[in-house]
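Journal club prep — side note

Before the paper discussion, L.F. wants everyone to see what a predicted structure for a comparable chain looks like in token form. Sequence:
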Amino acid sequence: FERSCERDKAEGCTAAGMLLATGRGGPQNLTRAAVLLERGCELGDADACHGAGYLALESPEGADPKRARHLLERACDGGLAEACHDLGVLLGDADGSDADREAAFRLHEQACEGDYAPGCYAVAYELTQPDAATGADDVRARKIFADGCARDHGASCYGLGLLQLTGRGGEEQPVEAAESFQSGCDLADPN
């Protein structure tokens, strides 16, 4: 794969970087993995940008949130829904300002539109917060949690159960709440 990368093939850079990052097929080398993934990113591979962004946060040399943000933005702009979610998490963890929370919310929405269940969960969760940057909306949150639960996302089942149990966003439904909680457990949600 590294030879392919040397010939400016983004897929080769990505594959070699991912193998080195995970230690599959040989010893793990996060420093070399980051170099290869960043090269794949430069060559236009959104998966490489995402991997490089993750490594920028988890680097043994120390986290570089600014670099991670740049790389995750490229991956998100490249259409990778998971990267949009991860960028939203990074922004949401930044300084807690309303601007960051609103930007994070928009990124989670983008991830949700890309059919990434954790992004949908993040949207629904934010909508249940009284101080939501975009305004609380339990009805919408309940629908998003229900959609996620129907797609076997355990945390969404748990969120739906809480809203059903308390009657937020609709009527109280204790029986359905118990079923939603059980679905979350069955799907291995730690809550």
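L.F.'s comment for the group: The radius of gyration is 19 Å. Keep this in mind when we get to the figures.
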